[in-house]
Amino acid sequence: MQTTTPTRTRSLARSLARSLARSLGCLPARLLATAAMALAPVLACAQGAPIKVAFIDQLSGPLANVGEIFQANLKFAIDDANAQGGVLGRKYELVSYDNKLSAQDSLSALQSAIDAGVKVVFTGGSGSSVVTALVEAATRHNERNPDRRILIVNYASIDPDLTGARCSFWHFATEANTSMKMRALADFTREQKDIHKLYLLNQDYAHGRVWAALGQQMIATARPDTQFVGATLHPLGKVKDFAPYISKIKASGADTIVTGNWGQDLSLLIKAAGDIGYDPRYLNHSGGGAPGTVLAVAQAKSGKLTWVSEWLPNTEDPALSALSARVKQTAAGEYFTPRVLVSVQLVTEAIRRAGSDDPTKVALALEGMKMKTALGEVTMRKSDHQLLLPQVVSTVAPVDGKTVKVGAEGTQYGFRLNSVTPAQALDLPSACRMKRPTGV
C-alpha cells in the first residue's frame, strides 16, 4: 500500500473540502478550514495510518534486563504481525517508554502515550504496584475521555487482585495469575517426598506478600504433612547480599524456599545459598525464564529451582521450537516469552473482529475470545479479563541427554519437565465485580 505523507493528506483534505464547498455553494472560509481539519484523520486512516501501541516497563536500573527481554519479545511479536500484513490494512507502530521501575514515571509515560495517540499499552514486567497504578489511571482517563480511550494489556504482573477485587474493563491479563501458578506448584508438591520444611522468603511488595500467603495456604492443603518454619520479607531490588537471609533460612532447617523473587533478587539468593553449600529447593513463579537465573544455579552447583511458565524452554514441540529459533535471532536471544506473542495475536484478532482499533470495541471483542495458538487454545474470561492458558512446571537441572537435552545461558543446565496443568484446570474463582462503561 502506498504511504501518504502528512502534506499529501492535508492537500487531499483541502481538495475534498473545496469540492464540498462547490456543492454547497456558500460555506464560510472558517468552516471550510474546520472541515478540512476534521477530514484529515479520516483520510489518514483510509490510507493506512499505523495503529500506535506502547511498551511501558523498566529499561534502566537494577532490573532493566527483565524489561529489555520483554521489550525485545514485544518487538518480535509486533514485527511478526506487521510481516503478516498487520490488521485492517494497517501496520502497528511501537513506541517504548522507560518507567524506571517507578509508578510515578509509569503514569507520566501513560500520559505521553495517550497524547501520542496510542490505543494499547503493553506492560507488566515492573510488578503489581506499577501495573495497578497504570490500570487505575487508564480507567479514570477513559471515564473522563470517552473519545481518547486506551487499553492496558498486562503480560507479566500476576497479582490476583488485578483480575479480582481491582479488576477493570480496560485491563486484560495474558499471564496466569499467582493463584493459578501456585495451584500448579502445589499439585507438583504432592509427589515430592523430599519436601518437609518450608520457608517463605519474598520481596516486600504486593505480589511478594500474595505469593507467600498463597504458598502457605495451597501447599499446606496439598501437603498437610509439611511444616512452615519461617517467613521473611525484604526490599525489592535493593539487597546486594542475601547471605544473612540464607543463614537464617538454613538455621531453620528448611529444605524448601517458597519465593516470589525475580531478576537479580533471585539470582543473588541462589548465589548466597551456593556460597555456603546450602542445597534447598526453590518454588518460584517465573524466575527460570529470567536472564541470569540458570547461570546462577549452574555456578552455585546447588539448589533445585522449580518454576512455572506457559511453556518448557527446551520444548520439543515443533511450533514452539520454530518460534523459539526465530526469537534467538533477535535482541531477545534465548529468552522467548510466548505469552507476549499471544498478547499481540489476541489484540490483532480483536481489532479484526471489531473492524476498528477503537479501544472500547476492541475490549468487547477480546471478552470471551477463544483462540488457537502455539500454546494450544487459550480463553480470555469475560468475567474478569484473565487469560486461561496452560502452565508447565519444570526444574533447572544438569543436562543428562535424556530428561534435559539442551543447556541454557551457555551452561550445561537446562529445564526438566515435571508436570503440565491444562488451562481448563486453572479456571479458578475470581472476586471481580466488573464495572462496565455506560452503554456497554
Automatic annotation (TrEMBL):
PANTHER family registered for this protein in UniProt: ABC TRANSPORTER SUBSTRATE-BINDING PROTEIN, LEUCINE-SPECIFIC-BINDING PROTEIN
UniProtKB keywords: Amino-acid transport, Signal, Transport
InterPro entries: BCAA_transport, Leu-bd, Leu_Ile_Val-bd, Peripla_BP_I
A single GO BP: amino acid transport
Superkingdom of this protein's organism: Bacteria
SUPFAM superfamilies, sorted: Periplasmic binding protein-like I
Ranges in coiled-coil conformation: none
Record's signal peptide: 1-46
Record domain Leucine-binding protein: where: 50-387
Family: Belongs to the leucine-binding protein family.
Protein's name in the database: Leucine-binding protein domain-containing protein
